[in-house]
Input
Amino acid sequence: MVNGQTFAQWFKDTYIFDAQGTSPLVSGFYFDDYITNTSFGDPWPHMADDMGITREIQEQLAADYAKNMAPVYDEVLARGMFSWQQLWNGQGSPSEKNGCCIGPLVTKGASCANQLRALCSATSPAQTRAMAYAFSPGRCGTDPGNLVYPEQDIANFLLVRGPYAWLCVPTRTKPARATPPLTHTLPPPPPEIRLGDMAGLGVPGTTKCPPC
Output
């Protein structure tokens, strides 16, 4: 205890949610990075070896990190804010975080219509959570200067997005040419052009799948 606070209390209440973190001008956080049982997010080569971190120490660090961040993530949601690690990109568990290398949630091919129906369902996480959607091919292999299916990706993003959604280019490669940043300012499409299983949303459905 220091000044009546544990480290976890200080980190959440004084460091994260201070006057700046609770400002009405702040809508979310970019927490970079995270600790897992095997990695420190974006480590330098042999970083763990250089620090003498064994497998047991790494696993303990990961457990302590998760325990320390859990109330912070909960507070973010309780305040109606977002953090990029909590954006949904197909994770199976509500508590599972995403990483930098996200991908498109609708893929080109025969499964496109089924994917659209599932994502457009009223109970889909695409409708109930803040969603991150990536240009193809995604997974940090996307060159923002040479997008492969930009029209289809934009169409699919607009079709499946809910109230809160971000369209982005996940990349760790040098772009062929400079491109402006993409933001979440694209509005949802009117209901009459949404596709998939619309029974739960109160609009007619269709199996037609032109974006794929």
Notes: Residues 174-186, 189-212 have pLDDT under 50 and may be disordered.
